């Protein structure tokens, strides 16, 4: 096994966090663009070349001042609602354009990671993001039609986006840590990225007011290129090939000699089915399959709850809050800082009390539900800030899902399981972001907090599933746990058969 320095992993995490924090500001840019081009004649025949010249020095401060005047000016109020509907609708279409290629490429890159190499798979999403940023800059400078946003989104989808990047980094972190330290290491890295995100989002709000958006996207483009160079230099592929099919296909009579080049279709079908065989009751102990499925579905409903916040930016920009880019940056930064500090302290506190990962996830969903309901009924800005006392403890499901699964999995099963989790993450998040943006666009005029109420509902379902998981694991006897505490080295395939084995 090739050891990769924790400093190299942390560096890539930080650089990618900076890039994606900058990328997240594009919603503010598009919203301000729509608000400035509101059709006063009432026809609302918005042209495709909608990007105005605000990209250098103009921020959304004018949008904020118009929002504040909504109570006394019905025209401003109509413009605000129209801009939110148009922005949410554009993001709905953008998410649709990248969803299908992203789902397909997440599967392909995830399953074939052992053959392609982790280094190559790690570089692919960085190249996709580089292409996206280049197109965004072209849109801003040359006022290109809005379908170029879809093309940029499609290119990112073909690269697997951040889902594949997180998937590969998760595999690397698991291989570089002992089982007892794994959960805390994941939480530590998440706290690190959250802190970096806080600093960047805080600074970006003020920078946008000073210089606009363009410089930030140039910076992000440069950081992507630096990330690619670091991966090439420091993330070397393992010298061995992991035999991912050892136990996954042990119940079948398939052998290396039976897999011929004349049967490629069956081989590919086996690759696809192998993702799900880990969760199968037929090939695994009953308690193991139930536990893995409960973890997976709890994670799915957490992702659904999290996806409802895809429209949260529009929620902040609308009345009664009417926030500017500075307000958004300050709030996001404070949220990230509080999450980085208190989530880590909370994890240590729960661990000191002897709470298992399942109990920690169960409690986190209670915090998630409370936080969503608090925000849904907030009327003042201070109430949103007060909600930050609750939200830092609401995301443990995200950090602990893979460590919880890894405790049930043999080393040769993890690539398939993590690939399936990455695929599920991609499907739920891409379609979820698109659907919830569409729902917000339909409900913003009369029921603007509807998506936040949906978040609370999804979180309650995850809470119930974690309660069931705790009940299942508590009834288990020690002899039912088949996973060894010590991890054996993966088997090296013989050179003579390496080109015939099932690629996973």
UniProtKB/TrEMBL annotation:
Keywords: Membrane, Transmembrane, Transmembrane helix. Pfam families: MFS_1. It is found in: Membrane. InterPro entries: MFS (IPR011701), MFS_trans_sf (IPR036259). The chain crosses the membrane at residues 7-31, 96-113, 120-142, 148-174, 186-210, 216-235, 292-316, 328-347, 359-378, 452-472. SUPFAM superfamilies: MFS general substrate transporter. It is a multi-pass membrane protein. It comes from the Eukaryota. GO terms for cellular component: membrane. GO terms for molecular function: transmembrane transporter activity. This is Uncharacterized protein. It comes from Adineta steineri.
């Amino acid at each position: 096994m090739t050891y990769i320095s924790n400093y190299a992993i942390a560096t890539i995490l930080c650089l990618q966090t900076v890039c994606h924090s900058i990328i997240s500001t594009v919603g503010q840019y598009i919203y301000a663009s729509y608000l400035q081009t509101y059709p006063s004649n009432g026809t609302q025949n918005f042209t495709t070349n909608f990007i105005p010249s605000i990209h250098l020095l103009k921020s959304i401060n004018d949008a904020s001042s118009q929002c504040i005047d909504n109570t006394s000016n019905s025209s401003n109020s109509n413009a605000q609602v129209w801009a939110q509907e148009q922005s949410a609708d554009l993001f709905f279409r953008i998410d649709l354009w990248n969803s299908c290629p992203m789902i397909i490429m997440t599967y392909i890159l995830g399953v074939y990671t052992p053959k392609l190499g982790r280094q190559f798979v790690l570089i692919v999403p960085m190249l996709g993001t580089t292409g996206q940023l280049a197109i965004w800059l072209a849109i801003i400078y040359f006022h290109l039609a809005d379908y170029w946003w879809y093309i940029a989104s499609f290119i990112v989808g073909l690269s697997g986006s951040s889902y594949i990047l997180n998937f590969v980094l998760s595999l690397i972190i698991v291989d570089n840590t002992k089982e007892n330290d794994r959960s805390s290491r994941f939480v530590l890295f998440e706290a690190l990225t959250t802190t970096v995100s806080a600093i960047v989002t805080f600074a970006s709000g003020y920078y946008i007011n000073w210089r606009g958006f363009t410089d930030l996207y140039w910076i992000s483009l440069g950081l992507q290129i630096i990330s690619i160079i670091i991966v090439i230099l420091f993330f070397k592929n393992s010298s061995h090939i992991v035999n991912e099919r050892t136990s996954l296909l042990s119940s079948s009579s398939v052998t290396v000699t039976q897999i011929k080049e004349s049967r490629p279709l069956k081989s590919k079908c086996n690759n696809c089915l192998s993702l799900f065989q880990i969760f199968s009751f037929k090939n695994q102990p009953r308690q193991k399959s139930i536990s893995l499925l409960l973890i997976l579905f709890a994670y799915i409903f957490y992702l659904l709850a999290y996806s409802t916040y895809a429209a949260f930016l529009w929620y902040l920009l609308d009345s009664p809050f009417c926030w500017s880019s500075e307000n958004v940056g300050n709030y996001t930064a404070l949220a990230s800082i509080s999450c980085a500090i208190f989530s880590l302290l909370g994890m240590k506190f729960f661990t000191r009390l002897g709470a298992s990962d399942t109990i920690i996830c169960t409690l986190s969903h209670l915090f998630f539900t409370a936080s969503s309901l608090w925000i849904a009924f907030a009327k003042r800005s201070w109430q949103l800030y007060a909600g930050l006392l609750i939200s830092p403890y609401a995301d443990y499901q995200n950090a602990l899902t893979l460590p919880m699964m890894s405790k049930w999995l043999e080393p040769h099963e993890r690539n398939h399981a993590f690939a399936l989790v990455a695929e599920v993450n991609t499907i739920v998040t891409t379609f979820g972001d698109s659907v919830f943006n569409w729902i917000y666009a339909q409900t913003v005029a009369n029921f603007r907090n509807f998506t936040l109420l949906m978040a609370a509902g999804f979180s309650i379902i995850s809470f119930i599933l974690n309660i069931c998981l705790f009940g299942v694991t508590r009834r288990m006897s020690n002899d039912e746990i088949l996973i060894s505490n010590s991890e054996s080295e993966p088997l090296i395939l013989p050179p003579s058969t390496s080109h015939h084995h099932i690629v996973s």
